[in-house]
Amino acid sequence: MKRRKFIAAAGLAAAGAAIARPAVAQAAPAVTWRLASSFPTNFDAIWSGARVLAEAVRQRSDGRFVIETHAPGEIAGAIEVLDAVGEGRAECGHTALNYFWGKEPALVFATGAPFGMNAREQNAFFRAGGGTELINEILADHKVVALPSGTTGCQMGGWFRAEIKSSADLRGMKFRVSGFAAKILRTLGVEPKAMGRGEIAAALGSGALDAAAWVSPADDEKLDLAKVAPNYYYPGWLQPNMAIHLVVNSAKWNELPKAYQEILRSAADTANAETQAKYDAANPAALRRLAEGGAKLRAFPPEVLESFWQATGAVMRETAAGDAKFRRLHDAYMEFRNDQYLWWQVAEYPFDNFMIRQRARG
Amino acid sequence: MKRRKFIAAAGLAAAGAAIARPAVAQAAPAVTWRLASSFPTNFDAIWSGARVLAEAVRQRSDGRFVIETHAPGEIAGAIEVLDAVGEGRAECGHTALNYFWGKEPALVFATGAPFGMNAREQNAFFRAGGGTELINEILADHKVVALPSGTTGCQMGGWFRAEIKSSADLRGMKFRVSGFAAKILRTLGVEPKAMGRGEIAAALGSGALDAAAWVSPADDEKLDLAKVAPNYYYPGWLQPNMAIHLVVNSAKWNELPKAYQEILRSAADTANAETQAKYDAANPAALRRLAEGGAKLRAFPPEVLESFWQATGAVMRETAAGDAKFRRLHDAYMEFRNDQYLWWQVAEYPFDNFMIRQRARG
């Protein structure tokens, strides 16, 4: 099965084969692991992925394999999880791999690139398109193995104090946005600002920020931004999907009995499905409440969206030119994306189009 | 966790609680089950769901819990799986619950209704919208418990010998289509025909059939219909998603150790994700090959699609008026669907729209 290949690709095959398979009549060993999460407890859907995962592992192992979840700061800061797991300070972690794009730009594609794939397409890339194998080849240098373990679906384009009429309005804009997206927006004259979630509302209120991107309605409504920056833009080109990963220290993965590896893999699958379902179930009502509370839904004007598209392409090409790992993953990702949209435009898209029009008719 | 509730809803909680939890140091018991599948071995993606499921159970239980998969006819015919599992002739089965709509019309919504939800929306309904609980309330009468275990995504609208210019062209049309969709199409003057996959190409060639709906490109290309009925229509309003279920005999479920129940649940999750990813990864190339082989992609004209929509609504209302179980599931399903499209039209849809237009530009 193709997705099993990543173990070999990550150079773990020999070590894995050396692990004795427990005799069937032997009781499964008691194992306790620590999980360092990048997500605070008040992120219901993403954070709950680590809890769902830990609970699934406990139940499926009949309580023999226990994963203790730790919030950011307990073992590692939110953006230090990959390093902490690679160094063995925690056996595993729950994180967005693009947090580490500065060290390893190719990891942008592990989470979801600007103008990348939607959630279902990206799941197909990871699982049946060689994506997880490619990501684990890169992560082998960091001494971790990764399994997809949560998706958000398409996010929103951000909260803006003023309407955006043209790409000229972006120049000098102080925008709370991070990572690879910040690099892209800088080429359009935006001034990206790093800022924790607790400070965003006040900064938008005082004018220290002009705009802020967060997640989607279910998470965004907790930040209470509609009064200070009511223009709520779509589509969420910055993050058409955000894939979360379970990252496991390679040596710890190899020491794990095969059945526990499979239980861990299964728990990642469950968390992946559960997180998306929770977002999908929660977002419609949250969107309604936000609109009732003053949020004004606005589509980016075509010229503005086109400027984002052009800027993204330029930064992608420039990064690919200087980084073979980035280029390899970029090319595989984009080829798969383009193929997916060939089919999507015949199947899902025209169906959704009809349903949305019928809904508007009442 | 909400999805755990279906066990209580299915009236199994008391029985479940009575099962002794194995002592942790005790070896897990050896269990062998038989699975009756509704799908022949040459359906790669759907059929492989049962194999993926069985292999996952074996690995996660360290070989102690074995599920033997059986093709249609070995234990039960394709449309007899629900009865066979309810009667205990097999411990479990892998089937489309809408095959049993004649006995239990509400089960239409367990698989995917005409003009129903797309795959991701339906997964959210099952997992976080109370859908699986509602389905299991209905299945309690049939002595089975069901877990979602495979999706196809949006299918195609069918292969037609002639172009469809208006809904008048549907009258007298001999259309290979089954189930609840056949009931809907009959109200538009279509003559539905039941027919096995092996006979379809010859029947279209001779004019015994005018049209046939099957699945989507990856499955359809094996039927070789492009030469005899080249007009390949979309969108697939008949089946915007097809959800497959693992069905388990209720008494057998209750006898299973809790850890094995969880392993089975996990394997269903894995098969659910794996099946969709395989379809998504395979469909683009299959669509290209079909087009190169003479298939002409055509959108249903708006008036024709509208006639399908009106006929579907009328049959749904009529069925709901005479069947309280159908009505209850219909209302919950449609309310969830309509909410999902509120969010979809802001997030996924505009993003997909932009990406498809950019792809067309090259």
Name the helicity range of chain A.
40-55%
What gyration radius of chain A follows from the Cα positions, in whole Å?
Answer: 21 Å
Looking at CATH, which topology of the domain at 7-152 and 241-281 in chain A would you report? Answer: D-Maltodextrin-Binding Protein, domain 2
Shape of chain A: globular
Taking the alpha carbons of the first and last residues of chain A, their distance comes to: 46 Å
CATH class type of the domain at 7-152 and 241-281 in chain A = Alpha Beta
CATH architectural name of the domain at 7-152 and 241-281 in chain A? 3-Layer(aba) Sandwich
Describe the structure.
- The structure is a homodimer of 362-residue chains.
- With 362 residues, chain A is of the alpha/beta class.
- The first copy, chain A, has a domain at 7-152 and 241-281: D-Maltodextrin-Binding Protein, domain 2 (3-Layer(aba) Sandwich).
- Chain A is 48% helix and 14% strand.
- Chain A has 15 helices and 11 strands.
- Chain A has helices spanning 5-9, 13-17, 44-60, 81-86, 108-111, 119-128, 131-139, 179-186, 197-206, 217-220, 250-255, 258-292, 302-321, 324-344, 348-361, and strands at residues 31-37, 65-70, 92-95, 144-151, 158-160, 174-176, 191-193, 211-212, 231-234, 243-249, 296-299.
- In chain A, the strands form 2 sheets. The first copy, chain A, has a 6-stranded mixed beta sheet, with helices on one face.
- In chain A, strand 1, helix 3 and strand 2 form a beta-alpha-beta unit.
- In chain A, helix 13 (302-321) packs antiparallel against helix 14 (324-344).
- The first copy, chain A, is globular.
- The relative contact order of chain A is 0.16.
- Chains A and B meet through helix 3, helix 6, helix 12, helix 14 and helix 15 of A and helix 3, helix 6, helix 12, helix 14 and helix 15 of B.
